[in-house]
């Protein structure tokens, strides 16, 4: 069951859903918009080795915007701290942003129940596109789970700002090295 926009607002007000800062103007019929913060991360390594911590460069988005070049990839984050211990959040791109050539969070839309922090957006620009701090870049829906709940306690818990991949921390690398 997906929550309506009105129900999302009620659940934020009751503290069952975290959205900080909360702006009721961002509520849609069945989602809440997420806005882009002012920091991007870009990978420095020409080849990413998932067993090695990647190097990144941090870049600020000025108030007058920053152009993302065609076919470029970077990481951004939501201004909002979001999550829930009662509902499963899912991140989606805004259709208006996608129609301007920016793929947002294409492959990692499911947020684990209990994960609370900023959302790291994977941004892939197919066209030259100017982005601005505070622009509506994504939206989040909330779904009611069924069954026993185990809350997320993983490596991205409490994220603040964009987070690079931490796949190198995954314990299965030890078993693959044998």
Automatic annotation (TrEMBL):
Name of this protein: dCTP deaminase
Pfam families: DCD
InterPro entries linked: dCTP_deaminase, dUTPase-like_sf, dUTPase_trimeric
E.C. number: 3.5.4.13
Keywords: Hydrolase, Nucleotide metabolism
CDD domains the UniProt entry points to: trimeric_dUTPase
Any GO MF annotation of the entry: dCTP deaminase activity
Root EC class: hydrolase
Keyword Transferase among UniProt keywords: no
């Amino acid at each position: 069951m997906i929550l309506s926009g009105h129900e999302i607002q009620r659940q934020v007000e009751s503290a069952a859903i975290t959205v900080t800062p909360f702006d009721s103007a961002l509520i849609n019929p069945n989602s809440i918009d997420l806005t882009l913060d002012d920091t991007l991360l870009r990978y420095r390594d020409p080849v990413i080795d998932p067993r090695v911590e990647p190097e990144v460069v941090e870049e600020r988005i000025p108030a007058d915007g920053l152009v993302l070049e065609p076919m470029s990839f970077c990481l951004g984050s939501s201004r909002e701290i979001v999550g829930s211990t009662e509902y499963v959040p899912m991140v989606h791109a805004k259709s208006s942003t996608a129609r301007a050539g920016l793929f947002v969070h294409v492959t990692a839309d499911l947020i684990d129940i209990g994960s609370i922090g900023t959302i790291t957006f994977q941004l892939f620009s197919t066209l030259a596109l100017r982005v601005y701090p505070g622009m509506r870049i994504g939206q989040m829906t909330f779904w009611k789970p069924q069954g026993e709940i185990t809350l997320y306690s993983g490596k991205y818990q409490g994220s603040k700002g964009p987070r690079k991949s931490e796949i190198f921390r995954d314990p299965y690398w030890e078993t693959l090295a044998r």
